[in-house]
Amino acid sequence: MASGLESFVSSTVSVICQDGRNFIGTLKGFDQTVNIILDESHERVYSLNGIEQVVLGLHIIRGDNVAMIGQIDETIDSRIDLSSIRAEPLGPVVY
């Protein structure tokens, strides 16, 4: 997993964690155990009342909590009206 992350450094990424939380931010770095450093980050909290964005700033996510990392197209993401989206929160990853 870590070998493909080099191309995401300095890009905006979405990190979905094992517990279902979703963090968005600029990938600043990572290590061999996929501990992630995000800058200018926020958490998107999904609910049936809309999506709340909780500003976090510099944020570190432990590698054993990372389920998925994906690059975000900022142009497309900026056009999404998050206040109009209703969704159940993601559940935790079950093995």
Provide a quick synopsis of the model.
The chain has 95 residues and is mainly beta.
Descriptive overview:
The protein has 95 residues and is mainly beta. Helices cover 9% and strands 47% of the residues. The longest helix is centred in the C-terminal third of the chain and has 5 residues, at 74-78.
Salient structural properties:
95 residues; five-stranded antiparallel β-sheet; 2 helices; mainly beta
The helix/strand order is: HEEEEEH
Fraction of residues in β-strands: over 45%
Determine the mean pLDDT.
91
Tally of DSSP helical segments? 2
By secondary-structure content and strand pairing, the structural class works out as: mainly beta
Low-confidence stretches: none
Helix content: under 10%
Spatial strand order of the main sheet: 4-3-2-1-5
Distance from first to last alpha carbon = 19 Å
Main sheet?
Answer: 5 strands, antiparallel
Please report the total strand number as a whole number.
5
| Radius of gyration (Å) | 13 Å
Please give the oligomerization state of what you see. Answer: single chain
Give the CA-based shape: globular
